[in-house]
């Protein structure tokens, strides 16, 4: 993880189409070199609780994830969580990892104390959050995020995550 530079914040703003809020660190860079996942503190500067610690910013990545979400994959993952105790245990551990990473900032937000993201620890609600967690934490931490990530196309090959004209 590294603190964002002014260029990173400009890139993220272009990716999001708005000024980025409270970016704490760059959690993952695309192979093209641009930020793709950021860390956001659990309480925004305006006081709003924000449980989504790992937030995907790259529009090509988020677009690919949205396509995957529309495929019915999340329903399949939810069914498997009910019947596969090993998967359910690994997914619960991913939830704990997410909470620990956020807690490492030392910012306590009672309203979201045991809330991670993406539906963890017992359901799949948002592949964007799970993939962002997998990219930030690395392989082997979030099994369903890793699975979704493996199904994505190489989103950075066609064009970098921010191109002239996006700015």
In brief:
This protein is mainly alpha-helical and 167 residues long. The protein has six helices and three strands, in the order H-E-E-E-H-H-H-H-H.
Please provide the ordered H/E string of secondary-structure elements: HEEEHHHHH
Q: What's the overall average pLDDT, rounded?
A: 93
Strand line-up in the sheet with most strands: 1-2-3
Which class best fits the helix and strand makeup? mainly alpha
User: Domains counted in the coordinates: how many?
Assistant: 1
Helix proportion range: 40-55%
Strand content: 5-15%
Biggest sheet details:
3 strands, antiparallel
What are its keywords?
three-stranded antiparallel beta sheet, mainly alpha, 167 residues, 3 strands
Describe the structure.
It is a single chain. With 167 residues, the chain is mainly α. It has one domain (6-151). The protein is built from six helices and three strands, in the order αβββααααα. It has helices at residues 6-16, 59-69, 73-83, 85-103, 127-137, 143-151, and strands spanning 25-29, 35-39, 54-56. A three-stranded antiparallel sheet has the order 1-2-3, sandwiched between helices. A hairpin with a 5-residue loop joins β1 and β2 (35-39). α5 (127-137) crosses α6. The longest helix is centred in the middle third of the chain and has 19 residues, at 85-103. The model has no long low-confidence stretch (mean pLDDT 93).
């Amino acid at each position: 993880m590294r603190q964002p530079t002014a260029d990173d914040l400009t890139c993220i703003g272009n990716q999001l189409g708005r000024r980025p809020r409270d970016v704490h660190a760059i959690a993952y860079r695309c192979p093209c070199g641009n930020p793709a996942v950021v860390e956001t503190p659990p309480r925004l500067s305006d006081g709003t609780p924000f449980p989504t610690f790992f937030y995907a910013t790259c529009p090509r990545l988020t677009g690919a994830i949205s396509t995957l979400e529309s495929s019915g994959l999340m329903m399949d993952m939810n069914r498997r969580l009910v019947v596969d105790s090993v998967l359910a245990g690994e997914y619960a551990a991913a939830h704990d990892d997410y909470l620990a990473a956020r807690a490492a900032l030392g910012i306590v937000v009672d309203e979201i104390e045991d809330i991670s993201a993406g539906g963890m620890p017992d359901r799949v609600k948002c592949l964007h959050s799970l993939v962002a967690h997998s990219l930030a934490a690395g392989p082997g931490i979030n099994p369903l995020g890793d699975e979704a990530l493996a199904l994505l196309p190489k989103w950075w090959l066609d064009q970098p995550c921010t191109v002239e004209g996006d700015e």
